[in-house]
Amino acid sequence: MNSRRIFCYWGLLLGVMLLSGCYHLRLEATPLDAPRFEVSRPPADVYATVKYLLARDRYEFEQDDAKERVLLTGFRHFSTRAGGLTLPAGGRLYFQRLKITVREVEGGSEVTVESADLEIRSSYAYDEGGKVNYFKKRYPYEHYPGMFDLDVVNRELNSVGRDLETALRTGVRNGQ
After folding, report:
1. What b/e string do you get for 114-136 counting C-beta neighbours within 10 Å, with b at 16 or more?
2. Residue 34: pLDDT above 90?
3. Taking the model in full, what pTM does it have?
C-alpha cells in the first residue's frame, strides 16, 4: 500500500512538471522578442524607408514622430488560432500594435521592432430566448498571458524585423 501511494505521488509530481511547460499555465506576461539590427545608412533615410515599407504593407500609423524617429502602428491582425474544443467558433484572432524605433549609432542606424500592445479578439454567439445574440471580447496580453501562444507572436515580430532588414540592406529607399 505504501509503495502504491509513493508511486501515485511521483506520477502526480511528474504530471505537474510536464504541465508547467504548457503556455496555458503562464501566470505573468513574459518579455517578447524585440528584433534589432543595424544598417549603414543615415537614420532619417532609414526612418523614411521603414515608414514607406510599412505603409506599403498596409500598416496604419497611430504615432509618427519623425524627430524622435518612433513609429507606432495601429492594431493589425496577424494570426488566427482555430479548431479544438476550447476555442470559439471564429477562433482566436491575434492583433498587435508595433513600435519601431530608429536610433543613430556609429556608422549608421539601429532599428528595433517591438510589440507595443498585443491582444486576442474573439466573437461568441449564444441563444437567449430563441434569439441568437453575439458579443466580442478582447483579451490583452498583460491580463491574460496564459491564452497566448508566444511562438506565433515572436515569429511575427521576427518576420517583420527580417523583412525590414532585408529591404534596407538591399537598397530599398523611401518611395522606390
Report:
1. bbebbbbbbeeeeeeeeeeeeee
2. yes
3. 0.78
